[in-house]
Amino acid sequence: MAYSETKVIIGGLAHVPILIFIINLIKGKFANKAGDLKGVEFKDKESTVKQTVPKKVEIKPEDDKKNEVKEVVLAEEEKREDEEKNEVKEVVLAEEEKREDEEKSEVE
User: Fold this and answer.
1) CA atoms within 13 A of residue 12's CA, in its CB half-sphere
2) 3-state DSSP call for residue 41?
3) How far apart are CA 27 and CA 20, in angstroms?
4) Domain for residue 52, yes or no?
5) Does the residue 47 lie in any domain?
6) Looking at the structure, do residues 64 and 108 belong to the same domain, yes or no?
7) Same domain membership, residue 63 and residue 34
8) What whole-number distance in Å separates Cα of residue 101 and Cα of residue 106?
9) What is the pLDDT of residue 65?
10) What pLDDT digit, counting tens, does each position of 85-101 carry?
11) pLDDT of residue 85
12) Which residues contact 3 (CB under 8 A, 6 or more apart)?
């Protein structure tokens, strides 16, 4: 059964006060929370930052020993890298010599 136009309009107008009540209730809840925050004061965080002077650190003898050990380890690693590079160069040179020999044998 279809409703007439007047019944639909009257039904809509009857529900308007209910909707207004719900909206005011929600608005009141948020207003209470906002009112509670008005009494809270926030401090500037920038004022808590302190500037300090860098301190000079003295090197202890133990630190010197550690540095010496690191230097020895680094020197050993550099030696290994140099040896590996030399080996690669030797391999490359050997391959070039083989190619030259092959070219000479082909020419003859």
Assistant:
1) 7
2) coil
3) 10
4) no
5) no
6) yes
7) no
8) 9
9) 58
10) 888 888 888 888 888 88
11) 85
12) 11
Buried b (16+ CB within 10 A) or exposed e, 72-102: eeeeeeeeeeeeeeeeeeeeeeeeeeeeeee
Q: Which residues of the chain are modeled with pLDDT < 50?
A: none
Cα–Cα distance for residue pair 10/7, rounded to 1 Å: 5
How many domains does one find in the chain? 2
Look at residue 10 in the predicted model and tell me its pLDDT: 94
Domain assignment present for residue 73? The answer is yes
Q: How far is 28 from 92, CA to CA, in rounded Å?
A: 85
Residue type (1 letter), 27: K
**Cβ contacts of 11 within 8 Å, gap of 6 or more:** 3
- Give residue 35's pLDDT: 64
In a domain, 49, yes or no: no
